[in-house]
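Supplementary Text 2. Reproducibility record for the structural model of the 205-residue chain.

All settings were left at their defaults, and a single model was retained for analysis rather than an ensemble. We include the record here because the model underlies the residue-level annotations in Supplementary Table 4.
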Amino acid sequence: ADPGLAFVMGQVAARQGDEAAAAVQFRKTLSLREDFLPARHALLDAATKKGAWGGVAEHAAAILKADPDNARVHLAHGVALPHLGKPDEALEAFARAQKHGGERLPEVRLARGVLYARVKGECEPALAELKAYQRAVPVMPDAAQVTKLVRDCEQVLEENRKAVEAARQMQADAQRQAAEKAAREQKAPAGEGGAAPTSAPPPPR
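Retained model, structure tokens:
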């Protein structure tokens, strides 16, 4: 009945590499004491490593009820939410993470940039976030992936710019051609292109 003992047993199992047994003990800890945050953090870390995003969202939300100013947990929550079909809620979580973590947590910039680029398809805000992350973390552990994402976004924006320019040019050409056609029609002799003039009928005999 001691949650502390169950938690220690979970830690021992985790160090021995038995993740399943560790999870059982950590959940037992929470069944004995729901607000035992070290067990929640342990389960959150395990879910994050496995990419079990439902578990990440569950444990992050539970931790934030007791510790609403925890920037890293807000970040973890935000990373999980797009995988659950909630990208807009993820942006809200990232905003809270940045509010509580400030520039001490540049990973928020990276997570937000990835969300804009890969989920929402909005390269302009994505590029701003990714470049801010690059400035904040000159030596990045994931430099190749970030650089590729920046390059892809820049390429998309350039292609969009060219498409807009092409559309403007087509519109200008169409307007010019319409103006030239109208000018030609105004200069044409009266009756040209129209029906032939009719002659008076012959007098009756």
